[in-house]
Amino acid sequence: MSSTRAYMAREDRRDVLLDAAAEVLREGGPDALSLRSVAECAGVAHRLVSYTFGSKTELVRALLVRDTTDAIDAAWGAPLEGSDAQEAIIRSLTAFADAVRSDPRYSECLAALTATARLSPELADAVSSEARHARSRIRAHVSEWATSHPDAPVDVDVLTDGIHASAEGLAAWWLATRDDARLADVVRGFAIGIVGAQPS
Fold this sequence. Notes:
The chain is an all-alpha fold. About 80% of the residues lie in helices and about 0% in strands. Mean pLDDT is about 90; it is low at about 1-5.
């Protein structure tokens, strides 16, 4: 282990180890992911990964939360100025789909990890934690958008739940079909449904 890596700041160390965890997941799928395999991929001692995360549950939680944060922030980083609610949702879901499509292998492995973790007594809490984080992050972005668009009144909770559920469904649909030709229509259908679900 190099001295540079040994004395990295805590957050930098977490990022390096999560990058390694992502690489292990991409290369070997959920079964390959462990504290030891992450240590080997990162080129550090096993005890450093154990010290940083404490358990595989915390490693999985940290990886899922980081990837969720990146995906949501990328989706809401799309230019939304001047958009009505439906157009804002279309742009955000399209950006989210683009993130899924940019690395299909990793997206498949991430979906498999999530499904596997849901069935594991040791890892199920990591998935629940990630879902709560995702909803909170989406809600913050929706609230910010709603505040900047007072002429387009929206129910923040309805939009939040709709976007969260639609993103999950959109990822599963695209990974199953790889149907780029139909993607825009599917996204628009989700957006129409979300806006239509708001109380009148």
